[in-house]
Amino acid sequence: MKKVALHNLGCKVNAYETEAMQEMLETAGYEIVPFKEGADIYIINTCTVTNIADRKSRQMLHRARKMNPQALVVAAGCYVQTQEVPDPCIDVVIGNNKKQDLLSILEEYDKDTLIDINNTKEYENLHLSRTGEHTRAYIKVQDGCNQFCSYCIIPYARGRVRSRVKEDVIEEVKRLAQNGYQEVVLTGIHLSSYGIDFEEGEENLLSLIQAVHDVEGIRRIRLGSLEPRIITEEFARTISALPKMCPHFHLSLQSGCDAVLKRMNRRYTSGEYYEKCALLRKYFENPALTTDVIVGFPGETNEEFGESKAFIEKVEFYEAHVFKYSKRQGTKAAVMEEQIPEQIKSKRSDILLALNEEGRQAYEKNFVGKEVEVLVEESVEIGGETMQIGHTREYMKVAVKTKENLQNHIVKVQIENDLQIIH
């Protein structure tokens, strides 16, 4: 029995794929061991979203080789999909859409499994019956992206949009529900594009959500990152009528300045984005709106940054994940003029991080004294006391003071003070 160690880098889609590969290996009789010395095979599911992600991927591959020079080092995913010359420490390369063939690749020791990802229409056939989390399951329903934002390499690493057939998704959700999971998170590389590669009118993200909602045993549904265009009057009204739908939406923004959005090749204006937030607030009571923001994009002036900051204040997000622009070779933004110095990026990042903290505190204060539902995930010791930790429907992390083991139970609690909400 060969010992296999897996390590994941990057997004929730990568995490899903890594867990699916692990389940595949376990079913085939391989022994899964920690990512330490002593494994016969090391599998690293790599990431390439930034230059830092590239570096982390290389570091983990070299760490695997160092831990056991005689082991088989397997590099999978986005980093190796975009590299012209493979790293010499890698024995086997498994590109995107080929992870489904992991077992046969290992048996044959095939060194060349990269395909032309930009010309494939096949959705990769991976499945899960359990995940690393015990209460919440992330389910990959879509791969690829057609957007080509000027800063992003992912369309070149993941290819064009490919959607998983609804029946396959529902079977997996049913299997996870039977194994005790009460919450599912639908995720993808560009989730909002789910179904656009099907025959017109066949399926879309809304019809998929409705089908998942009908699965017995599932009590909560969340969505991964969404593009603003998916939020229409019909979409917001329909999902608001689904009791299992969590009022937590991550709408990718990147900038609140229209000129910067245009340079980024984002296909909306700040005004259109604001309308989508207003729609969600029309149909959901105090939904948690979260987002991503890039500071220091090429050419971003002080005035443009000021516009972006003012827009973020106007929207009143629960959380904004702030990223300093990182030049990514192979993208249009990498060769744009007026690259912003690092010290200016850091200053702008600090300003938005402080703004984010203010927004988070303001949102959470709305819940003090109110009753919320918490899906309990684990028991921990805080200040010498046993606490049950879980998330509300809005995805606030809450501590419940009780010694009773409530893992994987949904309980109603009253938020007594903001110390119950932990970070």
UniProtKB/TrEMBL annotation:
The Radical SAM core domain sits at 131-362
Q: What is its EC number?
A: 2.8.4.5
Keywords assigned: 4Fe-4S, Cytoplasm, Iron, Iron-sulfur, Metal-binding, S-adenosyl-L-methionine, Transferase, tRNA processing
- tRNA processing keyword on record: yes
Which InterPro entries did the record assign?
Answer: Elp3/MiaA/NifB-like_rSAM, Methylthiotransferase, Methylthiotransferase_CS, Methylthiotransferase_N, Methylthiotransferase_N_sf, MiaB-like_bact, rSAM, rSAM_horseshoe
EC class, as a word, reads transferase
Report which reactions are catalysed by this protein.
N(6)-L-threonylcarbamoyladenosine(37) in tRNA + (sulfur carrier)-SH + AH2 + 2 S-adenosyl-L-methionine = 2-methylsulfanyl-N(6)-L-threonylcarbamoyladenosine(37) in tRNA + (sulfur carrier)-H + 5'-deoxyadenosine + L-methionine + A + S-adenosyl-L-homocysteine + 2 H(+)
Q: Name one Pfam family in it.
A: UPF0004
* Domain MTTase N-terminal intervals: 2-111
Q: Which GO terms describe its molecular function?
A: 4 iron, 4 sulfur cluster binding; metal ion binding; tRNA (N(6)-L-threonylcarbamoyladenosine(37)-C(2))-methylthiotransferase activity
What this protein needs as a cofactor is: [4Fe-4S] cluster
What family does this belong to? Belongs to the methylthiotransferase family. MtaB subfamily.
Which PANTHER family does its entry note?
A: RADICAL SAM PROTEINS, THREONYLCARBAMOYLADENOSINE TRNA METHYLTHIOTRANSFERASE
Its function, per the record, reads: Catalyzes the methylthiolation of N6-threonylcarbamoyladenosine (t(6)A), leading to the formation of 2-methylthio-N6-threonylcarbamoyladenosine (ms(2)t(6)A) at position 37 in tRNAs that read codons beginning with adenine.
Q: What is this protein called?
A: Threonylcarbamoyladenosine tRNA methylthiotransferase MtaB
Q: What is the scientific name of the source organism?
A: Muricomes intestini
List the top taxonomic levels of the source: Bacteria, Bacillati, Bacillota, Clostridia, Lachnospirales
